[in-house]
Structures are given as C-alpha cells and as structure tokens.
Specification:
Mean pLDDT: 82
Keywords: Collagen, Hydroxylation, Secreted, Signal
CATH class of one domain: Mainly Beta
Radius of gyration: 69 Å
Protein name: ADIPO protein
GO cellular component, one term: collagen trimer
CATH architecture of one domain: Sandwich
InterPro entries: C1q_dom, Collagen, Collagen/C1q_domain, Tumour_necrosis_fac-like_dom
Subcellular location: Secreted
Length: about 240
Amino acid sequence: MKGSAGFFLCLLLLLAPHCTEVATEDSQPDPKTPCANWMGGAPGYPGHNGLPGRDGKDGKDGVKGEKGEQGMQGPKGDQGEIGVPGREGPRGFPGYPGQKGEKGEGAFVYRSAFSVGLKERVPHPNVPIRFSKIFYNEQNHYDTSTGKFLCSIPGTYYFAYHLTVYLTDVKVSLYKKDKAVIFTYDQFQTNNVDQASGSVLLHLSSGDEVWLQVYGEGDNNGIYADNINDSTFMGFLLYPDPDVH
C-alpha cells in the first residue's frame, strides 16, 4: 500500500505543473481534458443591469390617414356675451318712392279776429262805443253798427284797447254780457294828450258779446281821435274749445 500511494503522489506532482501551464494559456480549458474536470469552479452570479441607453432620434411622420366619420353633434353651448358693435356699414341706395296715400281729411282752422279804430270823439257815456274805422274784420264778427263783438266760436280770446285822451278825463270799461270786466281811468293833464289802455283774456261761449263804453256819469268821456291821433280796439281767438268740431 505504501508503494502504491507513493506512486500516485509522484504522478500528481508531475502532472500539477503541466496543468498549471495549460491553465495560463487558456482561461477556458478544454472540457475534454482531465484537468478541466478536476479544476472547474462553481457557476458565478448574474451581473447587474446596465444603464439605459440614450433616446434615439424622432422618426419621420407617417402617411396621413383617411378622414374619419363625423361624430355625433354635441349639446348646445351657453349664449355668449354681447360683442362690441361693429363699424357702421356703407349707406345704402335710396329706395323707390312709395305709393301715394289716400287723401286725408282737411283740418279746419278756426279764425276770429278784428281790429278797429275811432273816427271821432265819443258822443255819449254808458253806451257801446262804435268804432267805425276798420283795420281788420274779415270774419265780420265785429258789428260796426252796434259797436259789439259777437262770439261765433267758443274758446279763449284776447282783447286790448289803446285810447287817446284829450280835453277831459276818461274812465272806460270793457264789458262782457252786460257786465263790466275791467276799468281804465286816465286824468287829463291840461295842454297835453294822454293815453289810456287795457287788455284781458276772456273765455267766451257762442253768442257772448264784448264791447267798450264810457263808464259812469259826468265828464269822463275824453276819448279822442282825429287824422293824427287814433283810439283803437281789437280782439282775436287764441284757441277754440276742445269740443268744437
């Protein structure tokens, strides 16, 4: 036994350098050699994952696809705010004349006016003064024979008088339906010519009369007129009553 053991030991010593040289020459020994089977180690563990590589360049766009089918209509949105008005557009061409309308009813214009003057001194008091000089009396609403204005159109009238006073005092009244409405008094100054005047607005009904006359007794009838001095009386309709047709 000792001889056999010594033989194998010697053989192992002789083969060890040979196997070492072979290992240095090739890190991957031939599995067919006896040394490779005797000297091979256990398999190693897997290595760690490497770092991610860089992003590649973008590819080219592909061919445009076909148009898809129209989708379903969505719900109606909320009404938007009113926008700023736009600029005014250009002026259009004039339109064609319209058809002639039917003839309307004519509006009747109510007129009533007079303006008269005195030709001579007033002879008597307490009677209507008859102004016989006619400046205007187109409607003949003033009667020169009676000295009275007769209302034919109910409404509001304006009356005025301007009288020359000479030789004596004057006290005159404007009457409506036998009743004095206003009074005017002027005291004559010796060697002078005075003026007495008055005006009033009156509402008259159809048939009402208006006139002037010297008021009271005595020397109050100094109303005077000649070729260079006038005493006048006038009146006119301002507007008729609403119910006049």
